[in-house]
């Protein structure tokens, strides 16, 4: 069972979400709140897996509330305004429901959350160790397995990364930092060569004037990483 709460300052909207939670077999509704401050106090001593969270609320919006949560549960936003969809993506929401929404729409969002929660719990229960073959990245409300051997290079853009894969025309985008991703990659295969780039050493085919060439992309090896990259070249130079 997925421990679930609902937060909405509109009584009828809160009642509807609670009724949907109650009729969904894999959800356990443990509490509901008409303001985020009471919910925050509850969460400090009662961990939950999933929150159905209204956005437009007095004192603290749902977006603001989600940003300050610790040990963040999965969040499905409920809102009457489609313009908040992008904001929901930025705070890593599972989905958003545009009011008024049907039970079918609610169930679709709940199942998305269920899949993510089960996958994460399975990984924790099995104590999966870091490996030299793959990692999982969240992209476009999905979790994708990324095989290390398929990665050509990775570009960091503030809070986002673009992972460029072999035989895929578009990069996989994920809400993460290059530094965080670097800790998950095996050092024997990957190297930071620029503050904005990590390259797969096995995929390097052309180096031109201090730049690594991937098709039409030229990645400059910056001074900070030049010595380490030169050591790699020296070890593999004929």
Brief summary:
With 238 residues, this protein is an alpha/beta fold. It is 31% helix and 32% strand.
Structural write-up:
Helix content is 31%, strand content 32%. The protein is α/β, with parallel strands linked by helices. It has two domains: 2-125, Response regulator (Rossmann fold), CATH 3.40.50; 134-235, OB fold (Dihydrolipoamide Acetyltransferase, E2P), CATH 2.40.50. The strands form four sheets. The protein has a five-stranded parallel sheet. Strands 10-9-8-12-11 form a five-stranded antiparallel sheet. Strands 13-14-15 form a three-stranded antiparallel sheet, with no helix packed on it. β6 (134-139) and β7 (142-147) form a beta hairpin. The longest helix has 23 residues, at 103-125. The radius of gyration is 22 Å and the shape is elongated. The relative contact order is 0.08. The model has no long low-confidence stretch (mean pLDDT 89).
Identify the strand order in the major beta sheet: 2-1-3-4-5
Shape designation? elongated
Give me the number of helical elements. 7
Assigned CATH architecture of the largest domain: 3-Layer(aba) Sandwich
Low-pLDDT stretches are none
User: What's the CATH H-level homologous superfamily of the largest domain?
Assistant: Response regulator
Portion in helices: 25-40%
Q: How many structural domains?
A: 2
How many β-strands, per DSSP?
A: 15
Strand content: 25-35%
Q: What do we call the CATH topology of the largest domain?
A: Rossmann fold
Question: Under the CATH scheme, which class of the largest domain?
Answer: Alpha Beta
**Helix/strand order:** EHEHEHEHEHEEEEEHEEEEEH
Mean pLDDT: 89
What is the radius of gyration computed over CA atoms, rounded to a whole number of angstroms?
22 Å
Biggest β-sheet description = 5 strands, parallel
SSE-based structural type: alpha/beta
Termini gap: 60 Å
């Amino acid at each position: 069972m997925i421990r679930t709460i609902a937060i909405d300052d509109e009584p009828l909207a809160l009642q509807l979400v609670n009724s949907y939670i109650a009729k969904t077999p894999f959800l356990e509704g443990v509490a509901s709140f008409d303001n985020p401050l009471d919910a925050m106090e509850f969460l400090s001593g009662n961990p939950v897996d999933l929150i159905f969270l209204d956005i437009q609320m007095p004192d603290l919006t749902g977006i603001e509330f989600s940003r300050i949560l610790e040990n963040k549960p999965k969040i499905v936003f409920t809102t009457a305004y489609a313009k908040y969809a992008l904001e929901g993506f930025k705070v890593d929401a599972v989905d958003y429901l545009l009011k008024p929404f049907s039970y079918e729409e609610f169930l679709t969002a709940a199942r998305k959350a269920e899949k993510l929660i089960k996958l994460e719990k399975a990984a924790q229960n099995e104590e999966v160790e870091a490996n030299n073959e793959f990692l999982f990245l969240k992209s476009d409300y999905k979790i994708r397995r990324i095989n290390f051997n398929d990665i050509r290079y990775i570009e960091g853009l503030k809070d986002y990364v673009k992972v460029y894969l072999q035989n895929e025309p578009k990069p996989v985008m994920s809400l993460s930092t290059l530094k965080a991703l670097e800790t998950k990659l095996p050092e024997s295969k990957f190297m930071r060569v620029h503050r904005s780039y990590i390259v797969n050493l096995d995929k390097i085919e052309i180096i031109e004037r201090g730049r690594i060439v991937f098709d039409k992309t030229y990645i400059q090896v910056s001074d900070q990483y030049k010595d380490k990259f030169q050591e790699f070249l020296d070890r593999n130079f004929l």
